[in-house]
Amino acid sequence: MGFYIPDCDKMVYKAKFGGEIRNFADDESLEWVKILDVDHLMKDGLLRVFAKTQDGEKLAEVTEKMYGVEACQATEALDSKPMWNPVGALRLSVGLRPKAIAFSQVRTLWSDNLRRCAVVSSQGILHRHFQVKTFTTKTKPALTTASSIADTKSVFSSEELEQARLQRLKGLGILKNFPEKWVPYMELMRIEKPIGTLLLLSPSMWAITMAGYMSAAPLLSTLWMLSVFGVGAFVMRGAGCTINDMWDRNLDNKVARTIERPITSGRVSMKQAWVFLSAQMLVGLGVLLQLPLDCFLLGASSLLLVGTYPFFKRVTYYPQVVLSACFNWGALLGFPAMGVWNWPVMIPLYLSGFFWCMHYDTIYAHQDKKFDIKAGIKSTALAWGTKSKTIFNALSTAQMSCFLTSGYLAGMGPFFYLGAAVGAYRLFSMTKKVDLDNPANCWYWFKENINTGHVFWLGILFDYLWKIFF
């Protein structure tokens, strides 16, 4: 039984399971390493093989996912012949009858000691997805780069890998109803997880509706601008996620929650990601062109923050500052979009959203802190540690002070203050109840911020509706 992983026109890795592993180095030298045992795990078309040396060291971990064929027994997964046909066919052994499938390309991602390969048919259908992870041993030539040392620390058990795969499939939701080749791109945009879009939209809704109240704008004008910003939030949040995954492709494979993301898992190549990002940015440009010129320039000025946010988690423990700065840009943009330029009102509302985002995104970061430490990813969750809840209370106090200041200067009515009171209760209650050492609980309270954002908006909306109709 053999695994063959191609790199352009030459074989760079061959695992021969019957007692030995052979490595082909760049200088064409090879070395044989004895294997103590090989463990197989086969389920739902997914084959994983774990090879160990006589000293008990893990030498290689091979993950193979088959698509469009029936799941088969591990002993029948591959025959003794090479799976890769040099003339462009993928040889599958299903049951006792091997068959060949033509393919148009083999997409590979090689990062130090981690290789991923995705085989795509001429019809664009993903047939097989490989991941090979090698580990340094006493008898195997060591990888000496700093990043490869980091990679060896990010080893997941077969159970963790399987759980990550099943979790991704479970979370696809409505995406399961779309063509399979669309799904990775929809996952790049996080369409199956709309919470980010809704959180991005909330400050825009506050600003647009507050500006509508201040100018007594017609309802249709306000609804039109809310819809424009809704489309913009959907598209630009998707573009931001694509940029994040492109930056983090060599970090996402070190965190269990992100190891199945499209780029780091090899289902979308960097070239494809660039093309897809360009398309999203063109749509975003179309949305901005619906706004007045001065508003267009203010919106475009946020793109630098959007593009550089992923970089900051590598150099500072406060990447949430950058995220919060760009994630609440709609609180500034919504006012001029409605023809209102009032900086004393705009700035406090923007700062209110900023402090809110610092709060909920730090809760979000607490989900991954165990893996972030190993991967070298920085966040406020790690910087604040056990002091997080004390700081959360300070952030909520600052948020509410700014929110109330903005509403007061805008001349808002009683519904605004009622919404602010309910929203404040939800913020401080969240801080008290969230278990920062429980990822599932962090996710629950993170999602609850959608409702909190809507509570703040409803207070503004009711004041606006009362003003224009009564």
From TrEMBL:
The protein's Enzyme Commission number: 2.5.1.39
EC category name: transferase
Alphabetized CDD domains for the sequence: PT_UbiA_COQ2 (cd13959)
PROSITE patterns tied to this protein: UBIA (PS00943)
Coiled coil: none
Keyword DNA repair attributed: no
Keywords (A to Z) from UniProt: Isoprene biosynthesis, Membrane, Mitochondrion, Mitochondrion inner membrane, Transferase, Transmembrane, Transmembrane helix, Ubiquinone biosynthesis
Membrane-spanning ranges: 195-216, 222-240, 273-290, 296-312, 321-341, 408-428
Family (UniProt): Belongs to the UbiA prenyltransferase family.
Name listed for the protein in its UniProt record: 4-hydroxybenzoate polyprenyltransferase, mitochondrial
Species in which this protein is naturally found: Pichia membranifaciens
Taxonomic lineage of the native organism: Eukaryota, Fungi, Dikarya, Ascomycota, Saccharomycotina
